[in-house]
Design a protein that fits this description.
Blueprint (H helix, E strand, L loop, with lengths): L4 E9 L3 H12 L2 E5 L2 E7 H14 L6 E7 L1 H5 L20
Antiparallel strand pairs: 1-3, 1-4, 2-3
């Protein structure tokens, strides 16, 4: 039985431009940029663990902040937004299994 995917929102506030750029490059490989410092990711649980390990190796835990929000299917369906989307990344529909 294949592992279910989880919808994960990652928001960050990184002090250093260098660390912020490194984190951005990592997150680009895992999800879609939803806002300037917010990514929406559809990942398996073990991939989330790998992502968190990579993030921990990049950030300075005394200066930076990274938040992870795991959303259930009904929460994702209720997502709403207003205004300029800001991202040039291609959007993809998110289906939670």
């Amino acid at each position: 039985m294949p592992e279910k995917e989880v919808f994960l929102v990652v928001a960050y506030d990184i002090v250093s431009d260098r660390r912020r750029n490194r984190l951005f490059k990592v997150l680009k490989g895992y999800g879609v940029r939803a806002n300037y410092s917010v990514f929406e990711c559809r990942l398996r649980k073990r991939t989330i663990s790998d992502l968190k390990n990579k993030i921990c190796s990049i950030i300075n835990q005394k200066e930076d902040s990274v938040l992870f929000y795991e959303l259930c299917r009904s929460c994702v369906v209720k997502k709403d937004s207003f205004g300029y989307k800001g991202s040039k990344d291609k959007r993809r529909d998110v289906t939670i299994i």
